[in-house]
Amino acid sequence: MNKLVGIHYEPQKQFYKDLKIYEEILKFNGLRSVRLCASCPGFWDQVKQLDLFIYYWGQWDAAHQNAKAIIPIVEKELNIPCFPNTRTCWAYDDKIRQYYLMQSHGFPMAKCWVFWEEDEAVKWAQDAPLPVVFKLSGGAGSKNVILIKDKKSLLRIIEIMFHKGIQDGRLPGRGSLAPRFFARIKRYLALKKRYVFSQPIPQYLSCPNWKPHKHYVLFQEFLPDNKYDTRVFTVGDRAYALRRSNRPGDFRASGSHIEDNDPTKIDLRMVEKALEISRKMGFQAMNYDFLYTPDKRIKFTEISYATAQWEFYRDQPGYWDSDLNWHQGHYWPQYFELMDALNLPDLRQPDGLL
């Protein structure tokens, strides 16, 4: 085997643990890899030599504008396999795209109301099924999610979105998880410390999102009495799952970091549905966040090809296959992603990885 895999790192030349896992697996199997950055000289000449291009990009404006310009060219024009490919990441960090895509196929995503015209949103608000969940189209960890309980607040959020707009992590209201004054001071001091001691500066500190969200509104039905959500992550025809408990006294589970990996507690309907959707849609990998309706049907609220793999999957005890058979043992998602993308069923995972 003489395959060469290129691994693109994010702006600010950060090479995170998740990316190092790819490198270690490739090295263990005698496969070559090279770190790439689109800003560096000779980038496109290097890309043309690859057997696989990996660009595992995150939820920052800088990464969005970079990855969306590069991946379609590598995949469609140069005909080089990519992870994620365009099909997998087209709706990433865009909840409107996600809803439109899932709704068009009739998949059980929680009902949403999306408006691009202020007057239509205001008309809907007169008889809206309160409470409803308001979301910005991008963002993680529930920082851009609030529950709207009354018409006054509903009309106010519509007015803001069609005029001033809202920055990432700056939702108004008491229910917002946006950082307050002391959190901003903490961020400033963390940034200052890294400058003083010449330490690497994470992108979320050095290059925060700058694009305001405006001229649309997105509301999602509120599914009450859920004390946790279930995240199912498919990789090819395999699935991991874990429960995430809500924050104390809150309806939001994403970003709570209160997780339970016990496979016996997972509703296998969710695993089965996630695998079905990923298979039908041709997704290389995909996260689904499931909740229950009052009558115990299952619905998912968001999808995302990306997650903090190191954080979520370092303690996973195993996975389900397409027949819902359980396979005990720890397997990194990167291992299966490489196996599928390189078509190497005999790929091996090293013990004690990171």
CATH superfamily membership of the largest domain: ATP-grasp fold, B domain
Q: List the uncertain runs.
A: none
User: How many separate structural domains?
Assistant: 3
Shape: globular
Give your account of this protein's structure.
The protein has twelve helices and 15 strands. It is α+β, with helices and mostly antiparallel strands. It has three domains: 4-83, Response regulator (Rossmann fold, 3-Layer(aba) Sandwich); 111-222, ATP-grasp fold, A domain (Dna Ligase, domain 1); 228-341, D-amino Acid Aminotransferase, Chain A, domain 1 (2-Layer Sandwich), CATH 3.30.470.20. Strands 11-10-9-12-13 form a five-stranded antiparallel β-sheet. The protein has a four-stranded parallel β-sheet with strand order 2-1-3-4. Helix 3 links the parallel strand 3 (52-54) and strand 4 (82-83). The longest helix has 17 residues, at 61-77. It is globular, with a radius of gyration of 21 Å.
Secondary structure topology:
Layout: E1 4-8, H1 17-28, E2 32-36, H2 43-47, E3 52-54, H3 61-77, E4 82-83, H4 86-89, H5 95-104, E5 112-115, H6 118-125, E6 132-135, E7 145-148, H7 151-161, H8 181-196, H9 203-206, E8 217-221, E9 228-235, E10 238-245, E11 259-260, H10 268-281, E12 285-292, E13 298-304, H11 309-313, E14 318-320, E15 326-328, H12 333-341
Helix pairs in contact: 6-7
